[in-house]
Amino acid sequence: MQENPPLKRTVFSETAFSKIALILSELLKRSQARLVVFADMNGYPIVHRGDIKAQSLSTLTALAAGSFAASGEIARLINNESRFRFIYQEGGVYHTYTCSVGEDYFLIVLFEKQVALGLIRLLTHQALLRISSYIKELQQSTERAKSFLDYEFRDVLSRQLDDKLKTRSGS
Amino acid sequence: MYVDWHRQEIIFKIIYYGPGLGGKTTNLEYLYRQLDPSIRGELITLKTREERTLFFDFMELDMGRINGKKPRFQLYTIPGQALYQHSRRILLRGADAVVFVADSQASRLADNLNTLVDLEEKLISLRRTLARFPWVLQYNKRDLPDIVSIDRLQQSLNFLQVPAYQAVASRGVGVIETLKGVINLLLQA
User: Fold this and answer.
1) Is residue A11 less than 8 Å (CB to CB) from chain B?
2) Alpha helices of B9-108 — where are they, by DSSP H?
3) B69 partner at 20 to 30 Å CA-CA among B33, B105, B142, B154?
4) Which string of DSSP letters, residue by residue, matches A56-120?
């Protein structure tokens, strides 16, 4: 490798996190949804409210980001739009409503079939308008990311890889 | 990479890239089987009816707390078939590092090179380039009879002299070493 690469770093401030968490709490309560998640288009879960295991949350947002990306390609093929604004999935017990928040983020709402889709759409739209106003505050400077990835952390993680990535057979 | 100051988490996205049927999914399947369930999530695979990767495979590694911080690594494979050009570009967005899984068989040499060129094209479209991006090579299927020598593979594919690992992913040989190698490279970046 010739030189260190310029990695894209996305960092979220404590303030923006708290503001969005509050909006999601209100959305969860008013919509009677089971789960609401704010995530980025790379599939990283940023803030969520409702019960879900951390690893299931990551998988959910990775799949939703993939689904959004695929729908964007469909939109491009048929409409020349950048992407559809929302995706609705209807299940036997739960439905999901996923909508984009600007170009880089999306919101997922998981709700029971007894809850009207219209209500979910209305409340989600209100929430995303409020979240949109905080988007600019979300992305912090590269310097803060560098301070998170300090030398000591990199060094300890690097040294612990052998132990962490040990296989069941011990190799 | 995504840093969450509130939870003190950092999430990295690592992509397994390479020609179709080269062994990308096999790498993840081995990691899923062999790593302690406490550090890895479920292996999600989106396959066609012919068992080929349709959109991507996904698995997350959670290393626990280190110095109060929690690193997590999201591993994705990308479908190798030419049909899925758009999926590859989409999944490369936001990638922090790539493992290029090359097929060592002589008959696949051109496919390896074409796919590497495809990777560079996709990176350029995302305003990045292999020359300034953390990536490693894995020469897979070293147990098959009609394989190309490591020297020739290095000459053909490793023109940027990135770390390279020999592997037989179906038996787990070289899989963990490759993963450790790419994570170490990522941490230096």
Assistant:
1) yes
2) 24-34, 85-92
3) B33
4) HHHHHHHHHHHHHHHHHHHHHHHT--S--SEEEEE-SSEEEEEEEETTTEEEEEEEETTS-HHHH
User: Is the model's pLDDT at A3 over the cut of 50?
Assistant: no
CATH code at B134?
A: 3.40.50.300
Q: Is residue B21 classed as helix, strand or coil in its secondary structure?
A: coil
Domains of chain A in sequence order: 14-140 (3.30.450.30)
Q: Which residues pair with A110 in a beta bridge?
A: A35, A96
Binary contact (A1, B41; C-beta < 8 A):
no
For residue B134, give the chain A residue with the closest CA: A5
Give me the helices (H) in B4-142, please: 24-34, 85-92, 109-125
- For the entire predicted model, the pTM comes to 0.85
Domain count, chain B: 1
ipTM exceeding 0.85, yes/no:
no
Nearest CA in chain A to B61: A55
Residues B81, A137: Cα–Cα separation, whole Å: 40
Cβ count near A55 (within 10 Å): 16
Q: Are A14 and B5 in contact (CB under 8 A)?
A: yes
Higher pLDDT, A69 or B29: B29
Chain B contact present for A148, CB below 8 A: yes
